[in-house]
Structures are given as structure tokens and as C-alpha cells.
Write a structure and sequence with these properties.
By secondary structure, the protein is an alpha/beta fold. Helix content is 42%, strand content 13%. The protein has an 8-stranded parallel β-barrel with strand order 1-2-3-4-5-6-7-8, surrounded by 7 helices. Helix 4 packs parallel to helix 6 and helix 8 runs parallel beside helix 9.
């Protein structure tokens, strides 16, 4: 499994900040995205074009997307829920529109106030606008690995929705989302393998949460099954505001650190990513889950005790 090229896609500026009670100033959001660009992430979900009343934390979407410094080769994506959001995102020069619905009828109703069929119809309109504008579409399918209100969602049902996204909406990519951290490695491997066998040329992303501590294990299971793109959130922040029990996304710097130790190439400058993550507590007003920010990288060594030489001399004296 070692030595693969893994594309790391950052969702912290959208998925992370959307649940924060403190409003992060616009200039700080722009600086955060710029720092993530400099760190070499393959894709950054910059913001969401949603109602400011629904998610006030992202009410500055247009300004942020227009004023970030764009690094060649990085895809700057925006989540859009409807036609108006798509129009705003296209006007603000989004490289990709990320559309969202749920594999679970219950979660879709609770989250989006629509049935899945109603959501699909609306996403079809958005995809049409994107096609006319020449902007690619990715579809994120929430609760692909289980619904907190329904339980398991059959793989066949998930794949049937993927088929509609790819064949009828013309989606360039699909993201299978573990919205509340219900996924486990054998399940992840089976669904990833089934998707890859059916659509080998479609961009597949896996989006895991670490709610039950299985985030990294699920990433590794997906890589073994053929996945090479993963969403992650700087500092491990984020979560769905409408998903009971959801906690943060898998942490970008933790995942990059682990993958690089296993010989995978991520294209990410881990030192710069950690530096960006260290800014977060002052921006959001609380600690972050990141283990690498707390403990450092494996070989970030600590200085010897100030009296180490005296300790060594006393130890040697015992043998004299």
C-alpha cells in the first residue's frame, strides 16, 4: 500500500468554520485559505453560498472567494445548495461547485427540508447552470456509511444515487461522506471497491469524521481499496450542524503526518500546514483536536533536561 499519490482536499474553511459560534473575520479567513494554498493542498473548499441566516459564520462568502490568492494547480471549491447559491459562486469565480444531498431520506428531510427526489431535482437545475458556465460539479452524498436516525444505508442504494449523479447530472466527482462517523474499515473498503470498479474514471473522494476514533483506519482501508482523494479539516475542526452526535472531520495534519510515514506522497508541506493549524485557537476561541499540533511530528525532538550533563556524570560515577 506504500508509495501512492494521495490528494488531500481541505474542507476546514467551510466545514470547519460553519459550526463555530465565533465569526472569524473575513481577512483572517482569506489569510487561512492563502496559508493552506501555500501548504500544497490539492483542493480547498473555501466557503458555502448559503443563506446568511442559516449559517451566519459564512456570510462573507463572495468576498472571501474573490480575494484569496489563487495558486496554480489548486482547485478552489464552494458548496452550493441551490440555483441562487450556484449563481453567486460562479460570479465569485469558484473552480468547482460542490452539491450536497443525503443517501438517507430521514437525514435529507431533517437537514435540507426536502425528500431526496426533491433534492435531486433541484441539484439537476444547479448542474445545468454549472454546465452552461463551464464549471465542474462534485456531488457530496451525506450519510453514505450510515444514518444516525435510520441506521445502515445499503451500498446498493448509495451506488444507485451515484449512478444518477454521474450519468444524469454529469458530475465530475462524487464524495462519499461519513457524516456522523459511523463508517468502519471493511464497510469502507467494500463501498470504495464497488465504486472504483463501476466508475474507474470518475473522481472519487472519501470524507470521514473521527467521531468514534476510526478516521485514520477508514482512510487506510479506502486507500487499500483504490481511493486516492480525501477530505480533511485543518485542526480536526468541523461537523454537520444538523447531524446528531457529529464531531470533527479527520484532521488534515494528522492524516498527512501518518500517510507520509507510510511512504505516501501527499504533495503537502506539513510544516506549513501545522503552522496554519496553530493559528486556529486564536481565531475560533477554543482548543482544537489536532494531535500533531499538540505533540508535534514524530521526530520533533525535545531538549534534554537542563541538568542532563550532571545526571550523566553521576550515572557514570556509579560505575567508577
Amino acid at each position: 500500500m506504500s508509495g501512492q499519490r494521495i490528494h488531500m482536499q481541505e474542507v476546514g474553511p467551510r466545514d470547519g468554520l460553519q459550526v463555530e459560534s465565533a465569526f472569524v473575520p473575513t481577512e483572517d479567513k482569506i489569510a487561512l485559505v492563502d496559508a493552506l494554498s501555500d501548504a500544497g493542498l490539492a483542493k480547498i473548499e473555501v466557503t458555502a453560498f448559503v443563506s446568511p441566516q442559516a449559517i451566519p459564520a459564512l456570510r462573507d462568502a463572495e468576498v472571501v472567494l474573490r480575494e484569496i490568492r489563487r495558486r496554480p494547480g489548486v482547485v478552489y471549491s464552494a458548496l452550493v445548495p441551490n440555483v441562487r447559491g450556484a449563481q453567486r459562486a460562479i460570479e465569485s469565480r469558484a473552480d468547482e461547485l460542490n452539491l450536497v444531498m443525503s443517501a438517507s431520506e430521514t437525514h435529507n428531510l431533517a437537514n435540507l427540508r426536502m425528500t431526496r427526489e426533491q433534492s435531486f431535482a433541484g441539484l439537476g437545475e444547479v448542474a445545468g447552470i454549472a454546465t452552461q458556465a463551464g464549471v465542474p460539479v462534485n456531488v457530496s452524498l451525506s450519510c453514505s456509511f450510515g444514518c444516525p436516525m435510520e441506521g445502515d444505508v445499503p451500498d446498493a442504494e448509495v451506488l444507485a444515487w451515484c449512478e444518477r449523479f454521474i450519468d444524469r447530472l454529469g458530475a465530475r466527482g462524487v464524495t462519499l461522506c461519513d457524516t456522523t462517523g459511523m463508517a468502519y474499515p471493511p464497510q469502507v473498503a467494500a463501498l470504495t471497491r464497488a465504486f472504483r470498479e463501476r466508475w474507474p474514471d470518475t473522481e472519487l473522494t472519501l470524507h470521514f469524521h473521527n467521531t468514534r476514533g476510526l478516521g485514520l483506519a477508514n482512510v487506510l482501508a479506502a486507500i487499500e481499496a483504490g481511493a486516492d482523494r480525501f477530505d480533511a479539516s485543518i485542526g480536526g475542526i468541523g461537523g454537520c450542524p444538523y447531524a446528531p452526535g457529529a464531531t470533527g472531520n479527520v484532521c488534515s495534519e494528522d492524516i498527512v503526518h501518518a500517510l507520509e510515514l507510510m511512504g505516501h506522497a501527499t504533495g503537502v508541506d506539513l510544516a506549513r500546514l501545522i503552522e496554519a493549524a496553530r493559528r486556529l485557537p486564536s481565531l475560533i476561541g477554543h482548543d482544537i483536536p489536532s494531535q500533531i499540533v499538540k505533540a508535534g511530528r514524530r521526530l520533533d525532538l525535545h531538549p534534554r533536561p537542563a541538568d542532563f550533563e550532571q545526571i550523566r556524570q553521576r550515572a557514570l560515577a556509579r560505575d567508577a
